[in-house]
Amino acid sequence: MNKKVLILCTGNSCRSIIAEALINRELDGISAFSSGVKPSGKVNPNAKKVLEENGAWRDEYHSKTLDTLEGIDFDLVVTVCDHAKETCPIFPKQIKKMHLGFEDPDGKSYDAFEATFKEIKEILLPKVKTALQMQKNVFKTDSGVKIAFTGVVAKQQIVKMVENCVTGSCECMTDETKKKIIDMQVVGEDGAVELNLTGDVAKEEIEAALARSKIINRG
User: Fold this and answer.
1) By three-state DSSP, how is residue 72 classified?
2) With contact defined as beta carbons under 8 Å apart, do 37 and 83 qualify?
3) 88 is catalytic
4) What is the CATH number of domain 3-131?
5) Which segments within 89-211 are labelled E, that is strand?
6) What does the pLDDT look like over 89-111, one tens digit per residue?
7) Of these residues, 9, 165, 170, 172, which one is catalytic?
8) What Å distances lie between residue 47 and 30, 57, 80, CA to CA?
9) What is the model's pLDDT at position 172?
Protein backbone atom coordinates (compact mmCIF):
# COMPACT_ATOMS: atom_id res chain seq x y z
CA MET A 1 0.00 0.00 0.00
CA ASN A 2 1.64 3.22 -1.15
CA LYS A 3 1.70 5.94 1.53
CA LYS A 4 1.00 9.56 0.56
CA VAL A 5 2.55 12.62 2.20
CA LEU A 6 1.79 16.29 1.66
CA ILE A 7 4.58 18.84 2.09
CA LEU A 8 3.09 22.24 2.86
CA CYS A 9 4.79 25.65 2.96
CA THR A 10 3.90 29.24 2.08
CA GLY A 11 5.02 29.83 -1.49
CA ASN A 12 5.54 26.23 -2.64
CA SER A 13 8.58 27.33 -4.62
CA CYS A 14 11.66 26.15 -2.68
CA ARG A 15 11.57 24.02 0.46
CA SER A 16 8.39 22.06 -0.21
CA ILE A 17 9.38 21.37 -3.81
CA ILE A 18 12.81 20.10 -2.73
CA ALA A 19 11.21 17.91 -0.04
CA GLU A 20 8.63 16.54 -2.47
CA ALA A 21 11.32 15.63 -4.99
CA LEU A 22 13.64 14.06 -2.43
CA ILE A 23 10.92 11.89 -0.89
CA ASN A 24 9.83 10.67 -4.31
CA ARG A 25 13.41 9.78 -5.22
CA GLU A 26 14.65 8.35 -1.93
CA LEU A 27 11.74 6.70 -0.09
CA ASP A 28 10.27 3.57 -1.61
CA GLY A 29 6.55 3.05 -1.08
CA ILE A 30 5.91 6.74 -0.35
CA SER A 31 4.50 9.29 -2.81
CA ALA A 32 4.99 12.96 -2.00
CA PHE A 33 3.01 15.99 -3.12
CA SER A 34 3.50 19.65 -2.26
CA SER A 35 1.42 22.81 -2.13
CA GLY A 36 1.48 26.30 -0.64
CA VAL A 37 -0.91 28.25 1.55
CA LYS A 38 -0.08 31.24 -0.68
CA PRO A 39 1.68 29.67 -3.67
CA SER A 40 3.96 31.88 -5.74
CA GLY A 41 2.93 30.10 -8.91
CA LYS A 42 6.50 29.24 -9.90
CA VAL A 43 9.42 27.09 -8.78
CA ASN A 44 12.49 29.05 -7.73
CA PRO A 45 15.16 28.57 -10.46
CA ASN A 46 17.78 27.64 -7.88
CA ALA A 47 15.47 25.03 -6.33
CA LYS A 48 15.03 23.49 -9.76
CA LYS A 49 18.78 23.69 -10.39
CA VAL A 50 19.78 21.91 -7.19
CA LEU A 51 17.26 19.15 -7.93
CA GLU A 52 18.47 18.80 -11.51
CA GLU A 53 22.10 18.59 -10.42
CA ASN A 54 21.20 15.84 -7.95
CA GLY A 55 19.04 13.89 -10.40
CA ALA A 56 15.79 14.51 -8.53
CA TRP A 57 13.93 16.97 -10.77
CA ARG A 58 10.70 16.08 -12.60
CA ASP A 59 8.96 18.39 -15.03
CA GLU A 60 5.68 17.74 -13.22
CA TYR A 61 6.82 19.68 -10.13
CA HIS A 62 5.15 23.08 -9.90
CA SER A 63 3.84 25.62 -7.39
CA LYS A 64 0.15 25.08 -6.63
CA THR A 65 -2.71 25.45 -4.18
CA LEU A 66 -4.00 22.64 -2.00
CA ASP A 67 -7.33 22.41 -3.84
CA THR A 68 -5.49 21.05 -6.89
CA LEU A 69 -4.72 17.96 -4.80
CA GLU A 70 -8.32 17.41 -3.72
CA GLY A 71 -9.26 13.76 -3.59
CA ILE A 72 -5.84 12.49 -2.51
CA ASP A 73 -6.05 10.56 0.76
CA PHE A 74 -2.93 11.71 2.63
CA ASP A 75 -1.38 9.67 5.42
CA LEU A 76 0.86 12.49 6.64
CA VAL A 77 1.08 16.29 6.35
CA VAL A 78 4.45 17.95 6.92
CA THR A 79 4.75 21.73 7.27
CA VAL A 80 8.22 23.08 6.53
CA CYS A 81 7.71 26.73 7.49
CA ASP A 82 6.13 28.40 10.53
CA HIS A 83 3.50 30.25 8.50
CA ALA A 84 2.27 27.02 6.94
CA LYS A 85 2.13 25.41 10.39
CA GLU A 86 0.03 28.27 11.79
CA THR A 87 -2.34 28.29 8.81
CA CYS A 88 -2.45 24.56 8.12
CA PRO A 89 -5.92 23.79 6.72
CA ILE A 90 -8.44 21.44 8.28
CA PHE A 91 -8.64 18.10 6.51
CA PRO A 92 -11.82 16.03 6.23
CA LYS A 93 -10.35 13.15 8.26
CA GLN A 94 -7.83 12.92 11.05
CA ILE A 95 -4.36 13.01 9.48
CA LYS A 96 -1.04 12.74 11.25
CA LYS A 97 0.79 16.10 11.13
CA MET A 98 4.42 16.98 11.66
CA HIS A 99 6.29 20.30 11.62
CA LEU A 100 9.92 20.56 10.55
CA GLY A 101 10.96 24.15 9.95
CA PHE A 102 13.72 24.95 7.47
CA GLU A 103 15.18 28.38 6.73
CA ASP A 104 13.86 29.83 3.48
CA PRO A 105 16.66 29.99 0.87
CA ASP A 106 14.61 32.26 -1.42
CA GLY A 107 16.59 35.37 -2.38
CA LYS A 108 19.87 33.87 -1.21
CA SER A 109 22.84 32.46 -3.09
CA TYR A 110 22.87 29.01 -4.67
CA ASP A 111 24.90 27.74 -1.71
CA ALA A 112 21.85 28.30 0.49
CA PHE A 113 19.79 26.01 -1.75
CA GLU A 114 22.45 23.34 -1.57
CA ALA A 115 22.39 23.64 2.22
CA THR A 116 18.59 23.36 2.29
CA PHE A 117 18.73 20.31 0.02
CA LYS A 118 21.22 18.65 2.39
CA GLU A 119 19.22 19.51 5.53
CA ILE A 120 15.97 18.21 4.09
CA LYS A 121 17.63 14.98 2.99
CA GLU A 122 19.34 14.41 6.35
CA ILE A 123 16.57 15.61 8.69
CA LEU A 124 13.17 15.41 7.01
CA LEU A 125 13.46 12.14 5.10
CA PRO A 126 14.27 9.90 8.11
CA LYS A 127 11.46 11.46 10.15
CA VAL A 128 8.93 11.00 7.33
CA LYS A 129 9.99 7.38 6.90
CA THR A 130 9.57 6.72 10.63
CA ALA A 131 6.23 8.53 10.82
CA LEU A 132 4.81 6.43 7.98
CA GLN A 133 5.77 3.12 9.52
CA MET A 134 3.51 1.25 11.87
CA GLN A 135 5.25 0.79 15.21
CA LYS A 136 4.40 -2.35 17.21
CA ASN A 137 5.36 -2.68 20.87
CA VAL A 138 4.44 -5.81 22.80
CA PHE A 139 4.22 -5.81 26.60
CA LYS A 140 3.58 -8.61 29.09
CA THR A 141 0.77 -7.73 31.52
CA ASP A 142 -0.72 -9.33 34.64
CA SER A 143 -3.65 -10.62 32.57
CA GLY A 144 -1.85 -11.49 29.35
CA VAL A 145 -0.23 -9.37 26.65
CA LYS A 146 -0.78 -5.83 25.39
CA ILE A 147 0.20 -4.64 21.91
CA ALA A 148 0.54 -0.90 21.31
CA PHE A 149 0.30 0.14 17.65
CA THR A 150 1.37 3.68 16.72
CA GLY A 151 2.21 5.58 13.54
CA VAL A 152 0.15 4.91 10.45
CA VAL A 153 -2.34 2.42 11.84
CA ALA A 154 -6.12 2.38 11.52
CA LYS A 155 -8.22 1.01 14.36
CA GLN A 156 -10.30 -0.92 11.84
CA GLN A 157 -7.12 -2.57 10.59
CA ILE A 158 -6.52 -4.10 14.03
CA VAL A 159 -10.21 -4.95 14.45
CA LYS A 160 -10.05 -6.84 11.16
CA MET A 161 -6.96 -8.74 12.32
CA VAL A 162 -8.80 -9.81 15.49
CA GLU A 163 -11.86 -10.84 13.48
CA ASN A 164 -9.68 -13.02 11.28
CA CYS A 165 -8.20 -14.68 14.35
CA VAL A 166 -11.65 -15.37 15.80
CA THR A 167 -13.04 -16.79 12.55
CA GLY A 168 -9.92 -18.81 11.83
CA SER A 169 -9.28 -17.08 8.50
CA CYS A 170 -5.76 -16.02 9.48
CA GLU A 171 -2.67 -18.18 9.75
CA CYS A 172 -0.48 -15.80 11.76
CA MET A 173 -1.33 -17.32 15.14
CA THR A 174 -0.80 -20.99 15.89
CA ASP A 175 -3.66 -23.12 17.17
CA GLU A 176 -1.75 -23.62 20.42
CA THR A 177 -1.51 -19.85 20.96
CA LYS A 178 -5.18 -19.31 20.09
CA LYS A 179 -6.24 -21.83 22.75
CA LYS A 180 -4.41 -19.79 25.41
CA ILE A 181 -6.27 -16.54 24.64
CA ILE A 182 -9.51 -15.98 26.53
CA ASP A 183 -10.39 -12.53 25.22
CA MET A 184 -9.16 -9.90 22.71
CA GLN A 185 -10.14 -6.23 23.05
CA VAL A 186 -9.22 -3.35 20.72
CA VAL A 187 -9.18 0.19 22.13
CA GLY A 188 -7.87 3.59 21.06
CA GLU A 189 -8.12 5.49 17.80
CA ASP A 190 -6.40 5.74 14.44
CA GLY A 191 -2.71 6.39 15.03
CA ALA A 192 -2.72 4.95 18.54
CA VAL A 193 -4.41 1.57 18.94
CA GLU A 194 -4.06 -1.02 21.69
CA LEU A 195 -4.88 -4.70 21.47
CA ASN A 196 -5.27 -6.35 24.87
CA LEU A 197 -5.03 -10.14 24.96
CA THR A 198 -6.24 -11.94 28.07
CA GLY A 199 -4.81 -15.40 28.79
CA ASP A 200 -1.68 -17.33 29.67
CA VAL A 201 0.13 -16.32 26.49
CA ALA A 202 3.78 -15.35 26.13
CA LYS A 203 5.05 -12.11 24.67
CA GLU A 204 7.28 -14.05 22.27
CA GLU A 205 4.30 -15.98 20.85
CA ILE A 206 2.49 -12.74 20.00
CA GLU A 207 5.59 -11.14 18.48
CA ALA A 208 5.95 -14.14 16.20
CA ALA A 209 2.28 -13.93 15.20
CA LEU A 210 2.58 -10.20 14.40
CA ALA A 211 5.57 -10.90 12.18
CA ARG A 212 3.40 -13.29 10.15
CA SER A 213 0.28 -11.10 9.96
CA LYS A 214 -0.50 -10.11 6.36
CA ILE A 215 -2.98 -7.43 7.47
CA ILE A 216 -0.49 -5.33 9.42
CA ASN A 217 2.53 -6.03 7.23
CA ARG A 218 1.01 -5.44 3.82
CA GLY A 219 1.81 -1.75 3.57
Assistant:
1) coil
2) yes
3) yes
4) 3.40.50.2300
5) 96-99, 135-140, 144-150, 181-189, 192-199
6) 666 667 888 999 999 999 999 99
7) 9
8) 21, 9, 15
9) 85
Confidence at residue 192, expressed as pLDDT on a 0 to 100 scale: 85
Q: What are the start-end ranges of the E strands in the chain?
A: 3-9, 30-36, 76-79, 96-99, 135-140, 144-150, 181-189, 192-199
33's CB contacts (< 8 A; 6+ apart) are 4, 5, 6, 7, 20, 69, 72, 74
Residues 6+ apart with CB under 8 A from 58: 21, 24
Fold of 135-217: Gyrase A; domain 2 (3.30.1360)
Compute the distance between CA of residue 39 and CA of residue 126 in angstroms, rounded to an integer: 26
160 versus 14: the higher-pLDDT residue is: 14
Residue length, the chain? 219
What is the pTM (predicted TM-score) of this model? Answer: 0.70
Active-site residue identified among 14, 81, 165, 172: 81
Residue 194 pairs in a beta bridge with 148, 187
Cα separation, 13 vs 80, in Å, equals 12
Residue ranges of domains in the chain: 3-131, 135-217
SS3 label, residue 138? strand
Mean pLDDT of 177-197: 91
Please state, in angstroms and as integers, the Cα–Cα distance from residue 10 to each residue in 61, 101, 170, 178, 217, following that order: 16, 12, 47, 53, 36
Per DSSP, what are the bridge partners of residue 193?
149, 188
Average pLDDT over residues 53-73: 94
